Amino acid sequence: MDESSLTPEEVARILKIAKNTVYELIKRGELPAYRVGRKIRVDLKDVESYKRRGKKTNPTLDEYSNYSGTQVREKNIHCASINLACQQGKLIICGQDVLLDILTRHLERHPYGTHAFRHHVGSFAGLQALYQGKAQMAAIHLWDGDTDKYNIPYVRHMLPGTPTTIIHLAGRLQGFYVAAGNPKDIKEWQDLTRPGIRFINREKGCGTRVLLDEQLRLKKVDRRMINGYEKEELSHLGVASAVARGEADVGLGNQKAALQVRGIEFVPMQQERYELVIKQEDLDRPEFKATIEILQSEDFKAELRGLGDYDLSETGRIVARS
Fold first, then answer.
1. Residue 116 pairs with which residues in a beta bridge?
2. What residues form DSSP beta bridges with 166?
3. Is the CATH number of domain 63-322 3.90.1700.10?
4. Where are the membrane-spanning stretches (predicted)?
5. Contact predicate 207/122, CB 8 Å
6. DSSP state letter for 311
7. CA distance 54 to 23
8. Domains 5-57 and 63-322 share a fold
9. Residues 273 and 221: beta-carbon distance below 8 Å
10. What is the rounded CA–CA span in Å between residue 113 and residue 133?
11. Which H helix or E strand runs over 172?
12. pLDDT per residue as tens, the chain (322 positions)
C-alpha cells in the first residue's frame, strides 16, 4: 500500500483525536478521503493540509506565554471540542461558574430543552464568541468603573448592532485570597504594591481581571508596581491554589473558590452581578424559552441555595434589553 495513504485509525493517531472524530471530519468534507473497496483512505498530504489550516486558528505561543504546557494543551483540546460543537449547530454557553453546570443539567431535563456545551472562557471571550456566532449564550461579570454598572456598558459596545437581552443569574462576592490569618494584612487595593507582596493575576479579558484593572485605574495605582501582575492563572481555583501553595501572597477571585481550597482566607472587596447575555433573535426558540423558565424557577434557585454564597434576590430577572 502507498505509504502516503492512511487509514482513519492512523489519521486519529497523527492528529491525536478519536477515530470517530476523523469520520466526522470526513463526513463534513473538512478532510478529503476516498474508498479502496470497502475501506476508507486519507492521503497524508491532506492530513498535513488540515493541520496547517488548524494552526491558523489556534492561539499563538505568545498568547499563552505565562501558562504551563498542560494548561495550553488542555485549552487547545477544549477549544477544538467547542469548535466541533459550533460546526454541528449545538447550543454553547460561555462562562466559568458552576451554576452554569446546573443550568445545563436542568436544560437537558426540560421538555423543550437540549444538551448544551460549556465553553469555559472569560467574559470578554464569551461576548466575542456570541458576537461572532460561535456561542449562543455568554455569562459575564464586567464592571465599568466610570458608571459603577455591571455588564450593560460592555454588551452595548462589544455587540454593536446586535439586539440583546441580559438576564440576571446571581450576585457574587469578589475579594482577595490570602493565607489563613491574613499574615500580610492585605485589605486594600493599594496593598498590592507594597514591598514583599507577591500577587497572582487572572488572564486578560475575564471579569476578575477587568475589576482589578478598573480599580487600579480609578485609584491611580501603577500596576507596574505590583509584583506578579504579569503572572496569570486561568481560573479562580487556580489563583486560590497558588496562594495556598505559597507561590503568591494574594490573588483576586470569587468567594466560592476560597471555600474550596484549604488554608485560604477570603477578604471581601466588591459585590458583583453575574448575568447571562442572549441575542434577542434567539428568544423565540424553544431551548431559549426553556432557559429563561429554568432561571426563574424555584427548583433552579433551590439548587443554587444549596451551594450557598450566591445572592439570588434577582435571579431570572430580565435587567436590560438593548
1. 91
2. 277, 320
3. no
4. none
5. yes
6. B
7. 17
8. no
9. no
10. 20
11. strand 164-179
12. 445 788 988 888 887 777 777 887 787 677 888 888 778 889 888 888 777 765 544 444 344 445 454 444 444 444 544 555 554 558 999 999 999 999 999 999 999 999 999 999 999 999 999 999 999 999 999 999 999 999 999 999 999 999 999 999 999 999 999 999 999 999 999 999 999 999 999 999 999 999 999 999 999 999 999 999 999 998 999 999 999 999 999 999 999 889 889 999 999 999 999 999 999 999 999 999 999 999 999 999 999 999 888 999 999 999 999 7
Q: Which residues pair with 274 in a beta bridge?
A: 170
Please tell me the distance from the alpha carbon of residue 53 to that of residue 303, in angstroms, as a whole number: 43
Q: Are strands 137-140 and 91-94 parallel, antiparallel or unpaired?
A: parallel
In angstroms, the CA 237 to CA 71 distance is 13
Cα(232)–Cα(204) distance, integer angstroms: 9
Q: Determine contact, residues 274/170, Cβ cutoff 8 Å.
A: yes
The domain limits of the chain are: 5-57, 63-322
Place of cell 492563572: 233
